[in-house]
Amino acid sequence: MEQSFLAYLRGRTSELPQVEVGIGDDAAVILPGPGPLVACTDQIIAGVDFELPAASLHDVGYKSMAINLSDLAAMGAVAESALVTLALPKENATQIAGEVYEGILEAADAFQVAIAGGDLTTYDGPLAISVTLLGRCPDGQPWLRSGAQEGDVVLASGAFGGSILGRHLRPVPRNELALAIRRLGVTVNAAIDVSDSLSIDLDRLCARSGVGVDLEVDAIPVHPDADRLAEQSGRRAFEHAWSDGEDFELLLTLSADDAGQLLAAAELPAPLTPIGKVIGRTGLWMMEDGKHVRLSPQGYIHGDQ
Amino acid sequence: MEQSFLAYLRGRTSELPQVEVGIGDDAAVILPGPGPLVACTDQIIAGVDFELPAASLHDVGYKSMAINLSDLAAMGAVAESALVTLALPKENATQIAGEVYEGILEAADAFQVAIAGGDLTTYDGPLAISVTLLGRCPDGQPWLRSGAQEGDVVLASGAFGGSILGRHLRPVPRNELALAIRRLGVTVNAAIDVSDSLSIDLDRLCARSGVGVDLEVDAIPVHPDADRLAEQSGRRAFEHAWSDGEDFELLLTLSADDAGQLLAAAELPAPLTPIGKVIGRTGLWMMEDGKHVRLSPQGYIHGDQ
């Protein structure tokens, strides 16, 4: 099916200026641009990252792009092109590929990403989608996990918890927010996207930066889905915000001055909330009765069993 | 296992100047270089592209890189960095990942490719390895399938047929040859690497260029493995050279002048043989008793069943 499917795909994909040669040669040719290239890759597999038919193939295709877009947003990068690899169950392979691709193309069109190439195989196994996304930081350096400075303010986009109720299949990656922040000219010292959980990913940022965070726990935005899930689970909504995965929000650290400037900006594409301050002592902390209490990061650690 | 395996991998991978930020952030940061970026991706899956335990995990890892290196060689590109995604059977996942990576790193070290990032998942399915390779054409334009001109000479590297006897697991991608050709300053009008078969891939190059080839069939280099396989299969060695897959040799078309200059060059990293001439009439042809006879491309078409 590969040759005929690639022919269909050539007809369905938008021509974008950043890709000079797309599907149909030995490799794609991507035009040089300003600044360093940023590249990430993430795969999702039926039975591990989603369940069929509970999730639609269209949503799964969309999600495979969105999780990679979120990684580029965390670098402050604009996505430019994608290489998409599908491993397809033998039964109904062409139909599955078509439906998955409709979701992939929806995300690609929404974020102006060119499908530059890919690979297709049918095999005796579950649907697996692997996306490699390439992008650039046109006007500056990529944001890294490792740059947080003592005294920085920690900002969180959106709200957290309960994505399993459905939001996890249709995440809105924060690329527009990242671009808007860049355009304001403020300096982001460190950034990460929340895939495993707010606490685990904030802890990762701290570990890479060699710092800790003094959290204002009550300020952490709890998503209405966390409230709804809490009614079912018997846990507190905050616990879901703290430990649930797949929010695909951004955590950013900036100097107090730059954070203030950013929070004063009108009309950002997503809300930003200050949730704590970077401190020299490693770990996640909160104040309780005038004392520092250490918090334990919790959630799903990807790939662990 | 992902976090601990990534820590092992960070220790095992060479630091190369082209990758500023490698494994351990949301995305890799790759420094800008001259010329357009060239990107390809290819996956191989147990039970489809190789059989375990007949193939060693080390060889399979090596092959997953080599087939992508071959795609970049066909563009005349130098490989710079790779993103590697593994889908691992749950049983013995860490051991399998380690052995596969030894083969990946062997190829990466041999061709000076930085492992810039990747993903790992354990699942209920066969070993699948997906590699995305990024490279550049530092001193010129990428070679495409579509540039063949009437009157060009068709050159083939190496020899063809019988790779199934073992060579297919340890292909030598022709990146050094491609670089040597670039350094000679000759113009390659079109190129492709032979993955499905000499005849199928030559036919693809012709289709993309809107031309045909008048072949000197007796000049096509037949690999000794094709002779050995012919003794087992009862077919002619030439049939194996014509229709067997996974030779990973290059087919190039150049003007007669440039081809002559190239063939006169001393000490190329691989032998080059003229096997035909590009003609305006589409299709693959040979002369027999003074008449043009059309030849049918044959071999394994990847993904077809």
TrEMBL record, chains A, B:
<dbReference type="GO" id="GO:0009030">
    <property type="term" value="F:thiamine-phosphate kinase activity"/>
</dbReference>
<dbReference type="InterPro" id="IPR036921">
    <property type="entry name" value="PurM-like_N_sf"/>
</dbReference>
<feature type="binding site">
    <location>
        <position position="26"/>
    </location>
    <ligand>
        <name>Mg(2+) 3</name>
    </ligand>
</feature>
<keyword id="KW-0418">Kinase</keyword>
<dbReference type="GO" id="GO:0009228">
    <property type="term" value="P:thiamine biosynthetic process"/>
</dbReference>
<dbReference type="InterPro" id="IPR006283">
    <property type="entry name" value="ThiL-like"/>
</dbReference>
<feature type="binding site">
    <location>
        <position position="119"/>
    </location>
    <ligand>
        <name>Mg(2+) 1</name>
    </ligand>
</feature>
<dbReference type="Pfam" id="PF00586">
    <property type="entry name" value="AIRS"/>
</dbReference>
<comment type="pathway">
    <text>Cofactor biosynthesis; thiamine diphosphate biosynthesis; thiamine diphosphate from thiamine phosphate: step 1/1.</text>
</comment>
<feature type="binding site">
    <location>
        <position position="41"/>
    </location>
    <ligand>
        <name>Mg(2+) 1</name>
    </ligand>
</feature>
<feature type="binding site">
    <location>
        <position position="196"/>
    </location>
    <ligand>
        <name>Mg(2+) 5</name>
    </ligand>
</feature>
<feature type="binding site">
    <location>
        <position position="195"/>
    </location>
    <ligand>
        <name>ATP</name>
    </ligand>
</feature>
<feature type="binding site">
    <location>
        <position position="26"/>
    </location>
    <ligand>
        <name>Mg(2+) 4</name>
    </ligand>
</feature>
<keyword id="KW-0067">ATP-binding</keyword>
<feature type="binding site">
    <location>
        <position position="42"/>
    </location>
    <ligand>
        <name>Mg(2+) 1</name>
    </ligand>
</feature>
<feature type="domain" description="PurM-like N-terminal">
    <location>
        <begin position="24"/>
        <end position="136"/>
    </location>
</feature>
<feature type="binding site">
    <location>
        <position position="71"/>
    </location>
    <ligand>
        <name>Mg(2+) 2</name>
    </ligand>
</feature>
<feature type="binding site">
    <location>
        <position position="71"/>
    </location>
    <ligand>
        <name>Mg(2+) 4</name>
    </ligand>
</feature>
<dbReference type="GO" id="GO:0005524">
    <property type="term" value="F:ATP binding"/>
</dbReference>
<keyword id="KW-0784">Thiamine biosynthesis</keyword>
<protein>
    <recommendedName>
        <fullName>Thiamine-monophosphate kinase</fullName>
        <ecNumber>2.7.4.16</ecNumber>
    </recommendedName>
</protein>
<feature type="binding site">
    <location>
        <position position="49"/>
    </location>
    <ligand>
        <name>substrate</name>
    </ligand>
</feature>
<feature type="binding site">
    <location>
        <position position="246"/>
    </location>
    <ligand>
        <name>substrate</name>
    </ligand>
</feature>
<feature type="binding site">
    <location>
        <position position="101"/>
    </location>
    <ligand>
        <name>ATP</name>
    </ligand>
</feature>
<keyword id="KW-0547">Nucleotide-binding</keyword>
<dbReference type="GO" id="GO:0000287">
    <property type="term" value="F:magnesium ion binding"/>
</dbReference>
<feature type="binding site">
    <location>
        <position position="300"/>
    </location>
    <ligand>
        <name>substrate</name>
    </ligand>
</feature>
<dbReference type="InterPro" id="IPR016188">
    <property type="entry name" value="PurM-like_N"/>
</dbReference>
<dbReference type="GO" id="GO:0009229">
    <property type="term" value="P:thiamine diphosphate biosynthetic process"/>
</dbReference>
<dbReference type="InterPro" id="IPR036676">
    <property type="entry name" value="PurM-like_C_sf"/>
</dbReference>
<feature type="binding site">
    <location>
        <begin position="118"/>
        <end position="119"/>
    </location>
    <ligand>
        <name>ATP</name>
    </ligand>
</feature>
<comment type="function">
    <text>Catalyzes the ATP-dependent phosphorylation of thiamine-monophosphate (TMP) to form thiamine-pyrophosphate (TPP), the active form of vitamin B1.</text>
</comment>
<feature type="binding site">
    <location>
        <position position="145"/>
    </location>
    <ligand>
        <name>ATP</name>
    </ligand>
</feature>
<feature type="binding site">
    <location>
        <position position="42"/>
    </location>
    <ligand>
        <name>Mg(2+) 2</name>
    </ligand>
</feature>
<keyword id="KW-0460">Magnesium</keyword>
<comment type="similarity">
    <text>Belongs to the thiamine-monophosphate kinase family.</text>
</comment>
<keyword id="KW-0808">Transferase</keyword>
<feature type="binding site">
    <location>
        <position position="71"/>
    </location>
    <ligand>
        <name>Mg(2+) 3</name>
    </ligand>
</feature>
<keyword id="KW-0479">Metal-binding</keyword>
<feature type="binding site">
    <location>
        <position position="193"/>
    </location>
    <ligand>
        <name>Mg(2+) 3</name>
    </ligand>
</feature>
